[in-house]
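Entry 14. Ran structure prediction on the chain below.
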Amino acid sequence: MHFDVFNGDADGICSLIQLRLDKPLASQLITGIKRDIQLLDKLTVSPGDHVTVLDISLQKNSAKVNEFLNQGAHILYVDHHQPGDIPQHPHLKTLINTDSSICTGLLVNQYLNGKYPLWAVTAAFGDNLNHSAEQLAATLNLTQTELETLLNLGIYINYNGYGSCIADLHFAPDKLYREMAGFASPFDFINGNRDIFMQLKQGYEEDMAHAQHLNPTYRSDTAAVFILPDSTWARRVSGVFGNFLANLHPSRAHAVITLNKDNDYQVSVRAPLANKTGADELCSAFPSGGGRKAAAGINHLPGDQLNIFIKKFEEFYS
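Output, structure tokens:
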């Protein structure tokens, strides 16, 4: 049995597309909303099973990785988040790089010696690594229109991964992957599935229009905090709105905080693009927090911790 375990965002989906274009095989897909990162809890392995894990923290899944290795599974783990202690085992292959200019899709592109670079460009754009995406795209002789199309597709796929549950999303990530898988390039996918592309585009534009009318709860020269309401559009837009703000004000850190139905908060932090560090450190100081240097979050921030978080956020980036 083969399991493909992947983050439900653009980076996870585009990474798996590259691998399965290179090596088609039948597998059981394990994924979820973008914040659902302990995905290995969802499967049971047997001796000889193969597990591919893409774009989720090894540190958050280390217990299951060790358990699966002890049960005789073979694991390929590709990621760009902080890994913690990496197990040493003959059945574990890791491709992990935490550099803030790298995403999982770019790591897979390197692993495959650049076989499907257009999907890697899309993954990088989805993770708001625009400079890295443009660097790779510069080797591919793309027109400006083609480059903007990949930028938009990456943003739309990434946007689709955000929400508190699958019902918040326009497409379940496994369904979206199945619609995209098998196309040699993102342009082929768009041409063959124009309705899906347009549905994501329309949803993104409508939700972002709501967000752009919001005023910050706190703002300084170095940091800004936006608090979004408990609504479906807000949960969907929380991550991509943070990316939008980061690109709009590259010297400022941003926190987008969304009220949950459980009366706690979901937090998305974007480090300044001019200094992409510290988001993971800040968020990991809170239970359910984690991420990477440039972008991180807290899944469940208790209501009575909100002011404490804002104070720490302000101090961290001041």
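The first strand starts at residue 2 and ends at 6. Will compare against last week's run tomorrow.
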